[in-house]
Amino acid sequence: MGIREDIRTVFEKDPAARSTLEVICCYPGMHAIWIHRIAHRLWRYRLRFPARLLSHISRALTGVEIHPGATIGRRVFIDHGSGVVIGETAEIGNDVLIYMGVVLGGTSLTKGKRHPTIGDDVIVGSGAAVLGPIEIGDGARIGAGSVVVRPVPAGATVIGVPGRIAGPDEQRTPGILDHGDLPDPMLRVVSRLLDRQSRLEERIFELERDHVTKEAKRNELIREEEVRNALRTVIDPEVGIDIVDLGLVKKVHVKDDSVLVSMVLTTSACPLVDYLKDQVKRTVLGLGEIKHVEVEILDEPFNWDRFVAQKGKLEDL
Q1: Is 218-316 in CATH node 3.90.79.10?
Q2: DSSP track, 150-167
Q3: Cis omega before residue 162 (within 30°)?
Q4: Residue pLDDT tens, the chain, 317 long
Q5: CA atoms within 13 A on the CB side of 167
Q6: DSSP H helical ranges for 28-160
Q7: Structural domain boundaries of the chain?
């Protein structure tokens, strides 16, 4: 732990550093750490007032307030430094990078451990506040403006107020915070909710479409049955039996306000074909809500044997 090591740390963590003289004269964060080492030694020797007075002078000169009771490891760099506050029982590990406006404060008025413990290789972004006797794991990153009140596991990234763990980032370069490239846990949650909402809406649309399709199919079947029942009033003059029971109506298809009736004839040269077609059209149109009726004559012979078998006895004719 020496001055040369501190100067090397500045060159490693601040690309703006150009010369050793500049670093020695123009980096108040480093000055604050140097003065703190003296004040901390006085504090350990129970020279409390001189230690506090020295830290107060350091605060006036550097803008960094470090309680002489705080423990700070090696190669800690306070960048810019203005507004940094480090409490009495705070503990900071090695190779920690602290930006301006950071507060390592307490949340209790009782004596004892009340300030955070910062692990090695931690980065604390500008304006962040780490409050209470919590532990920040090695290699963690705390985004600018975050307020951390819960422990942070090693390697995690914390952002927001209150601080939320955004997840580990194994691909990041050590020692670089990348303020503009931090993950957003709230955005991630909202995105997942929107995706789920979209999937639910698609599912509801499919269910509604299936319901409408089934309902329309059921209505068509009901309508077809109504048409068949109505066609039982149409009698074939040659036989004296309605065309449904006679088996002349092969198929009825209803689509919206249109009806297609497929029929066969008792003979290939039935003289009453036009009469039967006209009767079918009149009967179906009389049901209401039907505007178009088409009668299709199928090119297949009428099966008398099948009709007789269905009736059971030839005398039924």
Answers
A1: no
A2: S-B-TTEEEETTTTEEEE
A3: yes
A4: 578 898 988 888 888 888 989 989 989 989 999 999 999 999 999 999 999 999 999 999 999 999 999 999 999 999 888 889 999 999 999 999 999 999 999 888 888 899 999 999 999 989 999 999 999 999 899 988 899 999 999 888 888 888 888 766 555 555 555 655 666 667 777 888 888 888 888 888 877 777 666 766 777 777 788 888 888 888 877 667 777 777 778 888 888 778 888 888 766 566 777 888 888 888 888 877 778 888 888 777 666 655 555 555 444 44
A5: 10
A6: 28-44, 48-62
A7: 3-183, 218-316
State how far the Cα of 92 lies from the Cα of 102, in Å rounded to an integer: 13
pTM above 0.70, yes or no: no
Fold of 3-183: UDP N-Acetylglucosamine Acyltransferase; domain 1 (2.160.10)
Q: Greatest CA span in the chain, whole angstroms?
A: 130
